[in-house]
Amino acid sequence: SPVNIAWDKTHAGPWYVEEQRYGADAVCGGVADQNTATIDRGLKILHWGFEQQQPDGSFNCPDAFHSTSFLVEAAAHACLILNSSQYASQYSGEVNWLKPRIQKAANWMIELAVEANGKKHNQPFTHRRYLVAAALGEAGVLCSDESLVAKSQGYIREGIGLQDPSGFNPEKGGFDVSYHAVGLFYAGRYYDAVADANVKSSLFNMLKKGYAWLQERVRSDGTIDVTGSTRVGATQELSRNNTPKRVDYSVTYRGLYHWSLISQDPSYAELARKAFAGEKIYREQLRRSS
């Protein structure tokens, strides 16, 4: 991340620990590709993030609750994947280094004042309920901390309750196609890694309605129609790197494919392939307009 690279050189200006979450993608990709060099690279990225952790479990960066939730979820997910892979013993040392730091960060998130402030800032964004639930829940499963799992269930219930009858999960008073996909992505992870039978039932229904709504937004060429979105598109917000936010195709097609496995509906796997192809068209459109 350019913003974190710049901060690492001078320790001046803003940085965001959430930018280190992409290390988890490298870890999971390395496991899938049987490439330990990629796993090592991903762990190095996560490791740097936790090297910035304060004694109380926090990170001294702006928007700390939200930023921390990204890193906790990513690192916990990466560790769970490693633990269930053929590389479990090889990377047990790294996982054991990360686990207490993940647990400490998650417990910082649920401190009374910290959580109250985090909830206040997260209020307009439904997808953050699923992100926080996945962060706390996956950390709880990884660290055998039932208090974190119990806390995560409240966020899941709140998120489900916010879903619009038409299927979208609200963002800033309306819908945002990209952030809707992000919320579904984290909800899917929670479904697999954390949810008990009772939670799974209601979460399945939310995911079914949510992906049916998203399906209608994928054009025939695989590009995603963001018309009317509140955050990405014509009324773009800026990213942490001060560039316009773009449609998150990666989370969209990975989520669609994951839902095809959960629902056992192969049409969503086909839709995922279509969206994967659509990302190339989208990137070319961005290049031409820049």
Task: Give structural notes.
With 290 residues, the chain is mostly helical. It folds into 2 domains: 1-123; 144-290, no CATH class. 67% of the residues lie in helices and 0% in strands. It contains 12 helices and no strands. It is globular, with a radius of gyration of 18 Å. The protein starts with a helix and ends with a helix. The model has no long low-confidence stretch (mean pLDDT 97).
Summarize the structure.
Helices cover 67% and strands 0% of the residues. It is an all-alpha fold and 290 residues long. The protein has 2 domains: 1-123; 144-290, no CATH class.
Helix and strand arrangement:
Elements: H1 2-10, H2 22-33, H3 36-51, H4 64-83, H5 92-109, H6 112-122, H7 127-143, H8 146-162, H9 177-193, H10 197-215, H11 249-263, H12 266-289
Distance between the termini: 21 Å
Mean pLDDT: 97
Q: Helix proportion of residues, in percent? A: 55-70%
Number of strands: 0
The tally of structural domains comes to: 2
Radius of gyration over C-alpha positions, nearest whole angstrom = 18 Å
Q: What is the 3D shape?
A: globular
DSSP strand (E) fraction? under 5%
Secondary-structure class: mainly alpha
Assembly type of the chains comes to single chain
Order of helices and strands: HHHHHHHHHHHH
Q: Strand count, sense and closure of the main sheet?
A: none
Keywords for this entry:
12 helices, mainly alpha, 67% helix, 2 domains, 290 residues
